[in-house]
Specification:
By secondary structure, the chain is an all-alpha fold. It contains 20 helices and two strands. It is globular, with a radius of gyration of 23 Å.
Length: about 550
């Protein structure tokens, strides 16, 4: 009987990890397939950016609520309900004939489903495993997550090139069905300490806060961080905030709602009712240190995910599928090392593993940065990607372990929701900041390249510079077929390749800095979780 329960426990881990994988793959598949989706749905890049933005907003706004719902009403129930919603959303997205249908299916329905599933995948690990088994379980969980993020572009590229982007979503439906069938082996768990009532007003305040903050971060590239580059526009109506950008205004509004949320939660607790978040969780130094390291790591990972694929496609000249194949060293090393980290924890302290992982990541990024040039080939990236994959494998699983093992399993869903929300905020901030630096560097380098190019006559130089400054022309324009007949096509392509190379180097330097800050921040973590902590945290509540 005991062996059967143990088997079901590990099978349940694989099922919940599969759910995590499709959430991650879903996002990376969409990024690779953007060009084909835009063409097929007869839409534009700005509309697609909004579809992606709304998905991020839904996920950031509802993840904490999703985690708490799991604590109060059953983590398995929320996991299954979230998976079913995710499947419905995937089906709608798979038959989309317009941008509106894709928005409803992917951004809204899938987004809500993901917000319910995501915290449950980690909280089920916390509630069903303890001690050394939990470290191994988080290794498997992190390995599948890391591999999914790298295999996503490969899968998306192959489907887009050989079948259709619609199949990227249809495969989700099949996997969701497998997850729903497999969920029978997952044991239910929930918070036995609190009344099963949801703090609805707290959920609204939390959602408004996260939505406003993430929206502001995402719009920073377009409108500027503090002073407005241009007036904010909504429904074709321009709105002025006295010179401030919508980014600054939106983040301030978000912080206001966050303060209101914290005051409300304090009041709810004093009244003896169940808050959405137990503020006492932030007195847990190990948990706070864990989410801090997690958010800083997310800042750095955004740079890798953003810059390397763009460089491989725009400078090296690879298509989506070839780009995915070039990233295999990263995915394979992550897939192998993440589960291995759980075994290594028997001999190496958890904090040491995380620090070793960050050192591998830093070294890998340094190698990648030094390999970037206009003559780089995919094979030049193998060593750097292997080192980075080892680093991500060691850190991704064990930082989740050290963070969530710090809390009582009764509030594992709440803690997982907070952890995932801070990661989402870090990733959004990193994408916005790195995206702005990347595009800004490309534009500046393009302009300087055109101004100093001896092969471009002076009478054309001014017009090209003006086009770059006013029309937002970037590297893709200079590499397009429309410009292939230009008398300066070869020179402009060379200039654009240099611009992308320089921008990629700068982004990797920023990524290097974020990972270095994360390494320093790990000093706040305990070197090893005490056996007492593991035993307390590992109490199973079924």
């Amino acid at each position: 009987m005991k062996n059967k329960e143990n088997l079901f426990k590990w099978l349940g881990l694989l099922v919940s990890s599969m759910a995590l994988a499709i959430i991650i793959i879903d996002t990376t598949v969409l990024n690779v397939s953007l060009q084909e989706i835009i063409k097929d749905l007869k839409t534009d890049l700005q509309t697609m950016q909004w579809i992606i933005t709304i998905y991020s907003l839904v996920l950031a706004a509802l993840t904490i609520t999703g985690g708490r719902l799991g604590d109060l009403f059953g983590r398995k129930k929320m996991f299954v309900f979230g998976a079913a919603l995710f499947g419905v959303g995937s089906f709608i997205a798979s038959i989309s004939t317009s941008a509106g249908m894709l928005l409803v299916g992917w951004s809204l329905v899938e987004g809500i489903g993901a917000a319910l599933m995501l915290p449950a995948t980690a909280s089920l690990v916390v509630s069903n495993f303890q001690g050394k088994e939990r470290a191994i379980a988080f290794g498997v969980w992190g390995g599948i997550a890391g591999a999914a993020s790298a295999f996503g572009p490969l899968l998306g590229g192959w489907l887009t090139s050989n079948v259709s982007w619609h199949w990227a979503f249809r495969i989700n439906v099949v996997i969701v069905l497998l997850v729903l069938v497999g969920s029978v082996v997952i044991k239910e768990s929930f918070d036995r300490k609190e009344a099963h009532t949801l703090d609805v007003f707290g959920a609204i305040l939390s959602s408004l806060s996260m939505t406003a903050i993430v929206y502001g971060i995402i719009e920073s590239t377009t409108y500027g961080w503090f002073y407005a580059k241009k007036l904010w526009s909504i429904a074709n109506v321009e709105v002025s905030f006295g010179g401030l950008s919508i980014t600054a205004v939106s983040i301030l509004i978000g912080l206001f709602f966050l303060l209101a949320f914290l005051l409300w939660e304090k009041r709810i607790k004093k009244q003896g009712r169940t808050p959405l978040i137990s503020l006492s969780i932030f007195r847990n130094k190990q948990f706070v240190a864990g989410i801090l390291v997690t958010s800083i790591m997310a800042l750095g990972q955004a740079g890798i995910i953003f810059s390397i694929p763009v460089f491989l496609q725009s400078v090296v000249g690879l298509n989506a599928f070839e780009t995915g194949k070039s990233l295999l060293p990263l995915s394979l090393s992550t897939l192998v090392v993440a589960p291995l980290s759980g075994v290594l924890r028997k001999k190496i302290a958890t904090r040491d593993l995380i620090q070793f992982g960050l050192l591998f990541s830093i070294f890998g990024i340094f190698v990648l940065r030094n390999q970037i040039s206009a003559t780089t080939t995919p094979s030049d990236f193998i060593v750097g990607l292997l080192l980075l994959g080892i680093g991500m494998g060691l850190t991704s699983s064990q930082i989740a372990n050290v963070t969530l093992s710090a809390v009582d399993p009764n509030i594992a869903g709440e803690a997982s929701g907070i952890n995932n929300t801070t990661r989402q905020l870090g990733s959004s901030f990193g994408s916005a900041l790195i995206g702005a630096v990347f595009l800004g560097t490309i534009t500046l380098t393009l302009i300087n390249g055109v101004k100093t190019a001896a092969d471009i006559p002076d009478q054309f130089r001014g017009a090209i510079v003006e086009q770059i400054e006013t029309s937002g022309v970037n590297y893709s324009s200079f590499n397009s077929k429309e410009n292939s007949n230009s008398p300066f096509a070869s020179k402009l392509k060379t200039i654009s390749q240099v611009a992308i190379s320089e921008a990629s180097k700068k982004v990797l330097v920023m990524t290097l800095a974020f990972n270095s800050i994360a390494l320093i921040t790990t000093g706040l973590l305990p070197r090893e979780m005490s056996e007492k902590r593991d035993k307390v945290s590992g109490i199973s509540v079924h």
